[in-house]
Design a protein that fits this description.
Elements (H helix, E strand, L loop, with lengths): L1 E7 L21 H13 L7 E4 L3 H12 L5 E3 L16 H4 L3 H8 L12 H18 L6 E6 L1 H12 L16 E7 L2 E9 L1 H8 L1
Parallel strand pairs: 1-4, 2-3, 2-4
Antiparallel strand pairs: 1-5, 5-6
Helix pairs in contact: 1-2, 1-7, 5-6
Length: 206
């Protein structure tokens, strides 16, 4: 069966404070770099065929140690890009929580469009299309790949493959540097791991 590991980027100074969105120049902080190295170690025993990543700095930097362990190049993919939150980019969570739209983001995300950005429906279609394309490229049932991307993008993908309504996707938790694994057997998806935080636990012990 083809295995797709969905990895969220490591920590950066925006996590828990601001929405980075597609802003350029958001790099991993020191803890995020440690998490990335931990991810590289965790995947070292896997026979990976490819490592893909959203083209933003924080995802590419997370993917690099994973790829290096396997003498692979990180392949940037626009389909793995962060949700386009438009005018919300760079805004503090404190300021956004005061907006009426914030409650809709949490309760009925299928109904909203970010000001100047995309809808969750569009983002889900994008990531599912991307994963289906990558799955067709790695049709060998023994292929294992890694896709380093963003929290909401991973949640939207998992919700689709589990058959969850889009409005329930916010019930999933995806921590920085976590691993969620989908396995496809005869085209049928199975969720093997959700929000595996071993890389974060390694970081906390150091």
């Amino acid at each position: 069966m083809t295995i797709i590991n969905l990895v969220r980027h490591g920590e950066n100074d925006f996590v828990g404070k601001r929405l980075a969105g597609k802003l350029p120049g958001v790099h991993l902080n020191s803890r995020g770099l440690t998490q990335a190295e931990s991810l590289g170690s965790l995947f070292e025993s896997h026979e990976l065929q490819a490592v893909y990543a959203s083209p933003l700095e924080r995802t590419m930097e997370t993917a690099e140690p994973i790829a290096q362990r396997h003498a692979l190049e990180v392949v940037p993919r626009q389909g793995l890009m962060e949700l386009d939150i438009g005018q919300w980019q760079g805004k503090t969570l404190k300021s956004l929580r005061r907006l009426k739209l914030w409650s809709a983001v949490l309760s009925t995300p299928s109904m909203i469009r970010f000001p100047g950005g995309e809808t969750y429906v569009e983002a889900q279609g994008r990531i599912v299309g991307e994963l289906e394309d990558l799955r067709s490229r790695h049709a060998n049932p023994k292929d294992i790949i890694v896709c380093v991307t963003h929290a909401d993008i991973i949640k939207l993908a998992i919700a689709h493959y589990l058959g969850l309504p889009l409005d329930f996707f916010q019930r999933l938790a995806i921590a920085p540097a976590s691993i969620s694994t989908l396995a496809f057997h005869d085209g049928r998806p199975r969720l093997m791991h959700l929000n595996d935080m071993r890389a974060t636990r390694v970081d906390e012990r150091e």
